[in-house]
Amino acid sequence: MRPVQVNRRAFLTGLTAAALCPLCTSGTAWGETAPAHPGSEAHWSYHGMEGPQQWGKLKPDFKACEVGVEQSPLDLKEGIRAELGGLYVEYRESAAGIINNGHTIQVNVPAGSRLIVGRKNYSLVQAHFHHPSEHKLNGKSFPLECHFVHKSEAGELAVLGVFIEEGAENATLKQVFANLPKPGPEQPLGEPLRFDGLLPDDRAFYRYAGSLTTPPCTEGILWSVFRRPVRASKAQIQAFAALFPLNARPIQSQNRRFLLETL
């Protein structure tokens, strides 16, 4: 597909403006950041009557899951080749906490790590995992996908997605997956953690305007997904899959959105 030139400032402004909404700055917008508390929130699942096809009917706040037009994940294919500008990741080694919230394994990190998109800074808040991958690449699914969730001072959300394929043992995942917790309160990781080992050397990526992939499926999320996967061992993948046999939302319609791809 012929490369096109994109006004980076206008594109980023358009993609992130929709993120300035009440849900984006409330706890309910994060979907996976907190365990469900019976009686306080509508229960949702990846299966059956509370599965993805029913999310929009479980609670009024979840309506975007059913009627939204910029939902995630997508099958990343036939992207418009464009000059997207910089995507800079600065992840520092720091203490972290790990939690099994009933939907995924999530690693919460203190302030200090950030994602820079153009001239905008987003602080890394947490990372979590899906089995199998939620996004697909030209119709191909991967065993795992990691989502790095970032938040700007204005409350805008940006998510960085990384595919994980089977291969050599991943040193970063070894630290995270050493003792995968059962559902319950957050626990501290034994040693400081740095996420560099979960980022590919090739930083080519896809860019689109999407949503959270869990209820309430809030839209206005700036998505960047790396084309190249990183690797994890079969044992590491199986350890996560044993806890979460399926915690991936099905592919959503692209509708009239632009899917851009770095040159």
Automatic annotation (TrEMBL):
Reactions the enzyme catalyzes: hydrogencarbonate + H(+) = CO2 + H2O
GO molecular function: carbonate dehydratase activity; zinc ion binding
Enzyme class (EC, first level): lyase
Any matching Pfam family: Carb_anhydrase
UniProt-listed Enzyme Commission number(s): 4.2.1.1
SMART domains referenced in this protein's UniProt entry, alphabetically: Carb_anhydrase (SM01057)
Name of the protein: carbonic anhydrase
Species this protein is from: Elstera litoralis
